[in-house]
Write a structure and sequence with these properties.
The chain is α+β, with helices and mostly antiparallel strands and 283 residues long. The chain is built from 4 helices and 18 strands.
Length: 283
Amino acid sequence: MRFTKMHGAGNDYIYVDCFAQKVPTDVSELARRISDRRFGVGGDGLILICPSERADAEMRMYNADGSYSEMCGNGIRCVAKYVYDHGIKRDNELKIESGGRVLSFELEATNGLVHRVRVDMGEPILLPSEIPTTLRSAAGSQQPVFDVPLNVDRREFLVSCVSMGNPHCVVFVDKATDDWVLNIGPKVETNSHFLKRVNVEFVEVLDRSELRQRTWERGSGETFACGTGACAVTVAGVLSGRTDRKVKVHLRGGDLVINWDEYDNHVSMTGPAAEVFSGEWRE
């Protein structure tokens, strides 16, 4: 099986071109084995690039533990780059399907290779039952969950919940320490209030247009970047009065620019996409 290693701001995945070869069997087990950083290729997960009847391609994403995920902002930017660079469709505007949604992309290319991608991530999902979470706002069950108390490991802190096609729990902190990310992160991920587990963002507000973020991703652990997470923290920042609608988010692997448009309610994300190497998986 041929594969390509790619990353978006350090959020790295192994990509398989299913236009050129068959969809692998037992994808969950393959994702676990190939993502292993000691005995496999190494990555935050496995992404299949497949034909689509609704778009130019479909992304099917699996976390490093083999679980399926509906969306990955950094991963899908790399899918758009692959589609363009490898000639599946050479167009500066593309549409990619993932998790039943079709997203629109604008590509920036130099010398025939894409280096930066803007993606319209659509409208944020704020209704608790659709995130899904059993946490509720004091204002009522149909209201967004922002700055709601959560008790984990005998510690109470405020959280905000947003879905960008996948669920996020945002925690604003003075300092995103290892204790927050590596200790509290996995416990929030599997907390019973989150019915499909949850991605957890720990966020420092530098000013109204700049944030620093670390993410504990469900099924993968801490990652160097999380694009949908950066979108979620921007939405949480705006609705809680902490930030403006256009924000630069500093992640461990690079920066993303997020804009939540007040007119169409769509969140856009702009950031890098890079190809690292290609190879053959012989198992």
